[in-house]
Amino acid sequence: MKDKKIYVCSNCGNKSARWMGVCHKCGEYNTFEEKIETSGKTGIKTSAIQTGSRTGASFTRLKNVETNSSQRIVTSINEFNRVVGGGIVRDSVTIISSPPGVGKSTLSLAVCNDIADKGFKVLYASGEESESQIKGRADRILDNINENIYIISDTCLDNVLTAAEEIKTDLIVVDSIQTFALNAFLPSRAGNPTQTMECAGELVRLAKGGGKSTAVIIIGQMNKNDELAGLRALEHLADTVLILDGDNDEELRSIVATKNRFGSTGEMGFFSMTEKGLISIDNPSEFFVTKREEGQEVSGSAITVVREGSRPVIAEIESLVSRSYTPYPSRIGEALRREQLNTLISILEQRCKINLFDKNVVIKTAGGLKLKEPASNLAVIMCIASSVFNKPINGSSAFIADVGLTGELKKVPGQDQRIKELARMGFKKVYTAAGSSKPKTDCKIEIKQSRYVMDVISEVFGN
Prior knowledge:
Elements: E1 4-9, E2 15-16, E3 32-38, E4 41-44, H1 48-51, E5 72-73, H2 78-84, E6 88-89, E7 93-97, H3 104-117, E8 122-126, H4 131-141, E9 149-153, H5 157-167, E10 171-175, H6 193-208, E11 215-220, H7 233-237, E12 240-245, E13 252-260, E14 268-274, E15 277-280, H8 284-287, E16 301-308, E17 311-323, E18 331-333, H9 338-351, E19 359-365, H10 377-389, E20 397-400, E21 402-403, E22 409-410, H11 415-424, E23 429-433, E24 446-450, H12 453-461
Parallel strand pairs: 7-11, 7-12, 8-9, 8-10, 10-11, 18-19, 20-23, 23-24
Antiparallel strand pairs: 1-2, 1-3, 3-4, 5-6, 12-13, 13-14, 14-15, 16-17, 17-19, 21-22
Helix pairs in contact: 9-10, 10-12
């Protein structure tokens, strides 16, 4: 039955649906108290405003609060640690969301098992899967299921919180928040904004209640606009919001922190989806480049360095240029926006005198990495030119620059870090814009600076 607010006279017990200054039964003044009636039972609603009293508050000086690395639970999953800022803070609330089937439950279960291996008690609560379904997934992706992992399949959050208290859990995972409900807010169904926010509020109180430090991971569903389902206030409750992304038919998965109170917002990590679940890609610069021996270079390939979060990542851009037999040649950019690709093709035609009006042009990257910044524009142009001339680019060379509509090369931010990453991976030469900064330390890599894109094309291909 739904909760009902009533007023009861403290002198004679007379009930009223509204507050009255005088009880018409006993004649006493100011004796009505607000109470909550549920299923025929009446309980006093206690609040500081109604009783005229204030509850005690615990406070301390900010400068006396101690912080140290032990407040984090560091996993063995390096890319996950990177995104959350070095490990899960013990009294934090983290939301993980993704489109269906990308792997948020798989990643969460792997994190649970890794933390359990370190001696922490973990509770995995699912409102979507039965216990046997959870066990089946664990058998598939985990080599050894740790005894410190407890599971509960229930849509009642009250039962989950009771179990967490009995286990004295260090980490609780709720999968997913939209499937849980609190008894106090029935008959509102699970997924209702009220139930979702109240359930999230209870989990926040569990994490930050002042007792045992408990980390909370909330798995959230996405709506059709690829946004976290429910009220935006849900994200404000959390300390960290992680978005897992990737195509279901592709191996690559990326995870980005759209909010992080304990680390860098915008930090990104990479995973490979395999039969054993999500595997951390600890060296993305190696993953996104095709390994070729010297002399095995192919036309239509160029190397650049993009920045994902705070980290430079080497990427290989591939192109295919073929003759078109239709009035409107195809322009397909799997790794970048079509408008960006059309702009670069126009620069090639007008500034470099390379005719592509009767050519189909297709662009993609090795590993499926998305090109989201202009630092890769020179490499895109060079790989297209390589396809047109049918001449390969030296495998030890790379290109880092934006290209203006005038055909001039533009400087890009963070070039020092990008060049250092190239040197770390053994590249010998990099082409950049004139006037770009150079690393202060000797990276043992030749830096070729040019003013125009045509100068780079002439030097590389000899045209």
